[in-house]
Predict the 3D structure of the following.
Amino acid sequence: MMNKRLLMPLVAAGIFAGALIFSLVRFAMSPSCERCVFYFSSYDSDDYYAEVRYLNKDKNRDMLNYFVDEFLLGPMTNRLKEAFPEGTRVEFCIRQGDDLHLGLSKNALMVDSVTFDIKKNLELLRYNIVNNFTNLNKIFIYIDGKSVTTEG
């Protein structure tokens, strides 16, 4: 018969090994995610506040387009403002070398009490893209097919 003093460390080691194996299997089977930082304006000040989200990587979906779609959904944190009105969507997102051509639907032009400053909102969108996708040189934004950026 095994000594009681030896039994406890063996049980503890077995539980530890089981938990380690379980964690490694869960990690290997979980979808890979990319950490993205979203910046939004606050109702309380003019500063930008960061919100971290983990976006699932998908071979069939462009990460930049996915990022902009998530940005258009607005913040998840209380007291942060949406940048564009509800219903704004991406019409096209084309990367040509180091340049990005991003088209938003005409809902982006709708004005409400939160999203009334379109120029500031476009700057915030550009700020988010530049800080998360550093390999872009110029960003051209279009709303309803018409260019709204004077510079890249």
User: Anything to note?
Assistant: Strands lie at 33-41, 48-56, 90-96, 99-104, 138-143, 146-147. DSSP finds three helices and six strands in the chain. The mean pLDDT is 88. Residues 1 and 79 are 65 Å apart (CA to CA).
